Amino acid sequence: MQELLHERAWDLILSDHHFPTFSAPQALGILHEQGLDIPFIIVSGSMQTSVVVSCLKAGAHDFIIKGEWLRLVPAVNR
User: Fold this and answer.
1) Which pLDDT tens digit goes with each residue over 9-52?
2) Can you tell me the distance from the alpha carbon of 59 to that of 66, in angstroms, rounded to the nearest whole number?
3) Which of 11, 17, 37, 68 could disulfide-pair with 44, CB 3.0 to 4.6 Å?
């Protein structure tokens, strides 16, 4: 992710909550470590409320539950 953030300008980052070796909180941390201000939206099938709140407090712009795709377009537009 660190390399990709510097390869080009990004308009938006969509992140699943949990990959086998990487998570949305880790991705958000890397984004902030790089000092970049790119909108960050988490898209996940399930996440504990405490983790969602923690990510939003850490700077994630929104959280979309997979299957609620009608919320994604307004979130991206914001």
Assistant:
1) 999 999 988 778 888 889 999 999 999 989 999 988 877 788 88
2) 20
3) 17
Q: What is the full DSSP assignment across 4-28?
A: HHHHS--S-EEE-SEETTEEHHHHH
Domains of the chain: 12-77 (3.40.50.2300)
The sign of the dihedral angle between the CA atoms of 72, 23, 46, 36 is: negative
For the residues 62-78, what does the mean pLDDT come to? 89
Burial letters 62-73, b for 16+ CB under 10 A, else e:
bbbeeeeeeeee
Query: Quick one: 56 exposed, middle or buried, by C-beta within 10 A (0-12, 13-18, 19+)?
Result: middle
Length of the chain: 78
- Alpha carbon distance 6, 28 (integer Å): 15
